[in-house]
Known about the structure:
seven-stranded parallel sheet; Rossmann fold; 15% strand; 8 helices; 42% helix; 7 strands
Amino acid sequence: MFDLTGKTALVTGSTQGIGFEIASLLAKQGAKVFVCGAEDFEKCKEASEKIPGSVPVIANLLHVDEIDTLYSKTGDVDILVLNASIQYKRDWDQFTLEEYDNQMNCNVKSSYWLIRKYAEGMKKKGWGRIVTVGSTNQYNQHPKLSLYGVTKMAQLKLAQNIAPQLAPYGITINNIAPGAIDTPRNKQDLSDPAFRKKVEDSIPCGYIGKVTDISPAVLLLCSEEGRYITGSDLKIDGGMSL
């Protein structure tokens, strides 16, 4: 089960954290994986060296024209996982114009154009898997992540609107919504014992998730076994959003 032999996958934002674990698991199941970072090729290369058979590529997704450059390096892929995102923690009225644009461009705009770019090859093959990586901030009202939550809800709505149009071509597109996960992005906040306990107390399961709690769900959605799942929004948050 979950055999991806012969499949090619592109995972954006996969030099660390959730993206790296997703890329690693897809590769373990037989896929050729493109490990994609933003600008630091050496960092991307180091991550790729930890995933046998993977290929490092970089693309700054703040700039749409880099998507064509990225495609020239990868060609068509069978699996597209949109994990890259930008997050700033600010009061709702304290974002700069640049911070606003960066979040919208990376989290929403690039998702749209990446899907458009890579869906064409999937249509020709009659098979494809697209997974957008959202967040439980799609649903809650985090006082410091108002814009981030907006971008993730927009990304979800994009996936759900596109899903019925791609389904006749054998392409599924789904969203996952991780909750509080122990990643490099959250390391500083979670290192504070008082804050960590506050977060844990808000999770019915009672603990912070690991990246290995996320990747198996993505594997299902990217495999033949997940062929009848499309347009879904899968919360992986220990019940945090309940």
